[in-house]
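Researcher: Sequence recovery benchmark, item below. Answer with residues only.
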């Protein structure tokens, strides 16, 4: 494949700190490369350098041709006074001019102006261009083409910027966190678009399903060097583990050999004159290799929650709307102890509003939330928090707590706790203003958990966090002995952390699905295919038929109750059988107590079997 981009010995530093040194790589035509690294190690900086918006210390960047390059930064900026259509169609070519004229005429022109604009569209052969423009914006949930950019949310601005780039059909795409602020339907649309596109792609993203489906190469920045893996994300995980294992073994061998050579070097100074110079030189080379970084096992975030009682929260007939936008409509729910709930839905259907109602930051129009006395909230919002840029990381953490006690056995100093979130001792001395966006989000997460919550609410926690941090957080949430609500568009994260899902469908409709996101999508696709099947002629007349669906009709609470009843009935029947065996054997010890217990068991079994049958029939 022809080479598109060649990077040679690229080095970038900030003061005495190197982001990367002497990295070299090539992008071939049609490559789709995912760039992976921890926050603060230069992912965004590298993209900016390649795009020409940031300088570098040394090295060469060679483009093998005059390519149309599309670049999407993490936080794109558009002119606030411009409309959506003006922001997307910025070119002076005849097609862009014709579409702008035509849309303006449709929005407020006379019949003659519309006719003239239509003729200009014909002459510029711009009808297909206009259709594509509207198709991309509509897929990205932008429908008001004449809305000023100043009225758009940050997420909408990013989607308009993405639409602008895709509309120009670039030969090379450079994307920095393209899935941030996209709902799941848009992410899946973008997945399909990029998978089918022949565009050469270099992108940074934390979305592991997105990486796995699109990328055929993975580039990792690690220890200031670049490593390439020719495969998707799963292949990268496998080969990276092999590389780290080999590197650790090589470092360990060097350290073992160094002990012998160090003893030789420490002999009497008069003997050194007779040492072979090559061996002395080899000693210093060996010492350098032995001091090489040894990759440790993944950090385990062993942070316990405080005690939480059986009463969590109950929603009593809660309703909320903003003018015509219905968020909740007579919503009732009893949240169970240790429940882990995911919330999905299109942007604007009220996911964050639901959280704010639960926390008491907003009041419902009617109804109420009743929260248990032992509940201790921990809220990670997608807006983040304002941190003083002139403060150091460790000082910000000390403002929350000097010591972190979770129980008698689990105790951390502030520095130890920050280390769990991948802030080294040196990183803890950094000023907040010098942190990357991802590092700030990681610090925010640490500050939330320092308060020892037993009910975590995470609103878009994956935005701007690196994959390493996400894996640590996922492992922690799987072991978290408390309650959890996650609002996220990250499908991989949802699959690993939640037990069931609220699907916000708009207009106050919420579907409770007992399973993770992938299971929900599988059911949704099956249901869609079932609905699309033609009805055979012999079944045209109305008749009672069983409707097959992958989703049970039980609520999440009832599903958990059914599972518990199954186990309880098994234990009760085993105890009853044991007493039957005692009675048949003629044993007389504690006969009255056993007889009384036997009657209790029969009543309990009858009661629980009745309830088990009710729930079983409801789920069928």
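Model:
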């Amino acid at each position: 494949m022809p080479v598109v981009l060649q990077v040679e010995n690229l080095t970038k530093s900030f003061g005495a700190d190197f982001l990367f040194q002497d990295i070299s790589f090539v992008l071939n035509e049609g490559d789709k490369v995912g760039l992976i690294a921890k926050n603060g190690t230069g992912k965004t900086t590298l993209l900016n350098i390649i795009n020409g918006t940031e300088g570098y210390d040394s090295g060469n960047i060679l483009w093998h041709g005059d390519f149309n390059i599309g670049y999407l930064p993490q936080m794109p900026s558009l002119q606030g006074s411009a409309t959506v259509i003006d922001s997307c169609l910025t070119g002076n070519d005849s097609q862009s001019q014709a579409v702008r004229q035509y849309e303006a005429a449709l929005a407020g022109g006379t019949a003659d102006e519309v006719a003239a604009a239509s003729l200009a569209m014909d002459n510029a052969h711009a009808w297909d261009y206009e259709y594509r423009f509207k198709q991309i914006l509509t897929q990205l949930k932008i429908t008001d083409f004449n809305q000023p950019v100043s009225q758009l949310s940050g997420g909408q601005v990013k989607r308009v910027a993405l639409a602008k780039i895709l509309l120009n059909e670039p030969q090379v795409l450079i994307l920095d966190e393209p899935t941030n602020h996209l709902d799941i339907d848009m992410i899946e649309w973008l997945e399909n678009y990029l998978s089918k596109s022949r565009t050469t792609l270099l992108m940074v993203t934390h979305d592991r399903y997105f990486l796995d489906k699109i990328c055929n190469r993975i580039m990792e920045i690690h220890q200031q060097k670049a490593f390439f893996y020719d495969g998707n994300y799963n292949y990268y995980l496998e080969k990276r583990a092999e590389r780290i294992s080999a590197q650790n073994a090589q470092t360990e061998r060097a350290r073992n050999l160094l002990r012998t050579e160090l003893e030789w070097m420490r002999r009497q100074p008069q003997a050194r004159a007779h040492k072979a110079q090559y061996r002395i030189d080899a000693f210093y080379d060996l010492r350098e290799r032995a001091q090489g970084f040894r990759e440790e096992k993944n950090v385990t975030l062993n942070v316990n929650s405080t005690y939480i009682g059986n009463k969590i929260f109950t929603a009593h007939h809660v309703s909320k709307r903003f003018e015509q936008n219905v968020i909740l409509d007579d919503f009732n729910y009893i949240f169970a102890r240790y429940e882990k709930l995911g919330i999905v839905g299109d942007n604007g259907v009220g996911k964050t509003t639901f959280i704010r109602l639960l926390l008491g930051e907003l009041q419902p129009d009617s109804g109420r939330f009743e929260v248990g006395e032992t509940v201790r909230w921990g809220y990670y919002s997608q807006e983040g928090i304002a941190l003083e840029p002139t403060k150091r990381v460790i000082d910000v953490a000390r403002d929350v707590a000097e010591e972190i006690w979770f129980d008698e056995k689990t105790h951390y100093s502030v520095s130890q706790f920050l280390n769990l979130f991948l802030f080294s001792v040196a990183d803890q001395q950094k000023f907040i203003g010098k942190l990357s966006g991802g590092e700030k989000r990681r610090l925010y997460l640490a500050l939330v958990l320092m308060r020892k919550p037993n009910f975590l609410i995470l609103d878009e926690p994956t935005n701007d966090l690196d994959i390493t941090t996400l894996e640590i957080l996922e492992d922690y949430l799987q072991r978290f002995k408390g309650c959890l609500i996650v609002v996220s568009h990250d499908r991989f994260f949802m699959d690993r952390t939640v037990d069931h899902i609220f699907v916000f469908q708009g207009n106050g409709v919420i579907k409770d699905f007992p399973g993770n996101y992938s299971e929900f999508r599988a059911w949704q696709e099956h249901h869609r295919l079932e609905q699309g099947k033609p009805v055979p002629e012999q079944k045209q007349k109305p008749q009672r038929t069983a409707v097959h669906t992958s989703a049970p009709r039980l609520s999440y609470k009832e599903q958990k109750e059914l599972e518990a009843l199954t186990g309880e009935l098994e234990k009760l029947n085993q105890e009853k059988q044991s007493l039957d065996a005692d009675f048949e054997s003629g044993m007389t010890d504690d006969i009255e107590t056993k007889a009384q217990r036997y009657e209790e068991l029969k009543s309990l079994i009858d009661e629980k079997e009745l309830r088990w049958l009710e729930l079983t029939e409801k789920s069928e």
